[in-house]
Amino acid sequence: MYLKEFKLLPSLLLLVILPMIATDIYLPVIPQMGREFEAAGSGLANTLSAYMLGYSLSLLAAGIFADIYGRRVVAIIGLTIFFLSSIGCFFAATVDQLIIWRFFQAFGGGCGTLIARIIVRDTYDLKAQVKVLSYLAMGIVASPILGPTLGAYISDVFGWRSIFLFLACFSLFAVIFLCLYLHETLPNANSDMQYRFKEIFLRCCKLWTNREFVFNTLVISFAWGVYFTFISSSPFLIQTLYQFEPVEYGYIFSATISGFILGAIFIRWKIAILDLRELIFLAGAIVFFSAFSLFIFIILGGKSLGALLFFVFLALFGIGIIFPATQAGVTIPFKKDLGLISGVFYSTEMFFGAICGYVISCMDVINWYGSSLVMLVASTCILFLLVLDKSLSKAFQNKVFEKI
What we know:
By secondary structure, the chain is an all-alpha fold. It is about 85% helix and about 0% strand.
């Protein structure tokens, strides 16, 4: 396993970090971009929603093509599209142009997120999958921890457009690295597979009849809704409302988002003694309690930024557990069509993020009340799924006992 990790981990980390850092690196300069483009905060929030929509479509397409043509070629083509779109973002003259280029940036980069997870499923057993996925989860969260601060420093020295030039250079390096070191993990690329539209549609529908798939997909999707709601609104909740400079915002954001990393570390520590369902149930309870406490604190008039971010930190800790646990659990019942399964899984997750981002962008004024309400609704849905799953499990066990 150590040899596999030594060969694979750098490539996998590049695949998952690049599209995620593109989400976070320009957050500190959103107010500055708004002034240059003469656009409201809600208009700029649409650049994040467009990114999530492109991400969602990318994941679905990549899942299908990864099973036909292989993992490696899809990843390389996707990151090449990301590179070209980053150049487009650099030259964008209006908010609308930036929104379009951000969509294609995500459409290209999103495939890396999926391909990395499929390669993990191709290569490792279940226990090792959870551990490697937790490494990838920490790599993903390293982007919001380092990204905003890095973006703030880059923009201070070279201007906000240089952030997209940095992403173009980073993606070009990633493409070259993958061409040199990433090997195909699909035993036989099946270009003659009968992936007609009707068959794809029927296979997708069949997935939604599988209890394990539905449970893990919906749990991670609502968890991503909580996570993305905070990310998309944080420049306004922290920087604008509390008048912090971009660099200061980067440090505050990074400290808050580190709760996710602690959650990813926790699951690696506990996976040996707790099963995935127990970990997901524990994490879901933490997310709901944190979001509920945040909302009540705001309703009661609480304005302390430290207290507000503490509740967000706790919610992110729970989400850090949910992500690798559901990612490992969703493919357990399946032995083939892993690309399609993963594509539908991650595409649904990102689509929920796009919905939450759109809700945020529809707010006249982005504030803590509205954002915390969206987070509470999403976390309540997680709790409902957990309770429903436990009830169904008990009912099934009772039926088996009666038959015995």
